[in-house]
């Protein structure tokens, strides 16, 4: 899903963001959470009208040994609405990412489709991730899915790269770059795509 109407949300302190989509409105929300201090943030999108579509694309990179508590809400109030939330967390050192993903599909939201996935890469044995998907579905004729994955750089990737004479730090930089690009390459606006990608690379360049 590539929705051309885009809003970029850069979160670096406690923040609450909410938006409402009327009938037929389509919008992509790009959010980067890259704080230097612990924070709590909430992002909520309410699909109020029929055929409204929302795509949330997010990257979390705590810059120090801090805690990030983030919640997103996909609120379906009308029929045939669509929402997708794709979130990637890059967790270093002793940082904690705590994420709660809320999906609500109301009684009059038949034909709606909601999806949510949180993928976390752990670059330290002390890095921590908590993910809580919360789904409330009040109509049977809908589609709703969620997924969670947490992993370090896979051992087979490390082994293969080392057979190509790459050092550990080189491998980490390449793998992290691909991990970030999975989200940034989905951003349809080239200016926002480059802005988010370059900010992420500036944060991770010390790896």
| Main sheet makeup | 6 strands, parallel
End-to-end Cα distance, whole Å, is 32 Å
Please count the beta strands (DSSP E, at least 2 residues each). 11
Count the helices. How many? 3
**Unreliable parts:** none
Radius of gyration, CA atoms, in whole angstroms? 18 Å
Spatial order of the strands forming the largest sheet: 1-3-5-7-9-11
Series of H and E elements: EEEEEEEEEEEHHH
Protein name: SUF system FeS cluster assembly SufBD core domain-containing protein
GO biological process, one term: iron-sulfur cluster assembly
Domain SUF system FeS cluster assembly SufBD core: 37-179
Describe this protein's structure:
The protein is an alpha/beta fold. The protein has one domain. About 20% of the residues lie in helices and about 45% in strands. The chain contains 3 helices and 11 strands; from the N terminus they run βββββββββββααα. The strands form 2 sheets. Strands 1-3-5-7-9-11 form a 6-stranded parallel beta sheet, with helices on one face. It has a 5-stranded parallel beta sheet with strand order 2-4-6-8-10, with no helix packed on it. Helix 2 packs antiparallel against helix 3. The radius of gyration is 18 Å and the shape is elongated. The relative contact order is 0.15. InterPro entries: Fe-S_cluster_assembly_SufBD, SUF_FeS_clus_asmbl_SufBD_core, SUF_FeS_clus_asmbl_SufBD_sf. It comes from Candidatus Gottesmanbacteria bacterium GW2011_GWB1_44_11c. This is SUF system FeS cluster assembly SufBD core domain-containing protein.
């Amino acid at each position: 899903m590539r929705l051309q109407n885009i809003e970029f949300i850069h979160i670096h302190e406690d923040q609450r963001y909410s938006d409402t989509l009327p009938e037929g409105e389509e919008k992509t929300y790009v959010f980067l959470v890259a704080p230097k201090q612990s924070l709590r943030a909430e992002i909520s999108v309410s699909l109020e009208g029929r055929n409204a579509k929302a795509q949330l694309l997010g990257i979390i990179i705590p810059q120090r040994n801090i805690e990030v508590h983030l919640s997103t809400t996909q609120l379906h109030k009308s029929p045939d609405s669509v929402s997708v939330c794709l979130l990637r967390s890059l967790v270093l050192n002793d940082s904690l990412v705590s994420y709660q993903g809320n999906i609500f599909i109301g009684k009059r939201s038949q034909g709606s489709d909601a999806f949510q996935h949180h993928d976390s890469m752990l670059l330290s044995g002390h890095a921590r991730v908590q993910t809580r998907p919360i789904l409330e579905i009040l109509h049977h004729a809908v589609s709703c899915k969620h997924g969670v994955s947490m992993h370090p750089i896979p051992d087979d990737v490390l082994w293969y790269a080392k057979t190509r004479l790459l050092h550990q730090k080189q491998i980490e930089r390449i793998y992290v770059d691909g991990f970030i690009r999975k989200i940034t390459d989905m951003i349809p606006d080239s200016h926002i795509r480059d802005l988010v990608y370059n900010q992420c690379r500036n944060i991770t360049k010390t790896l």
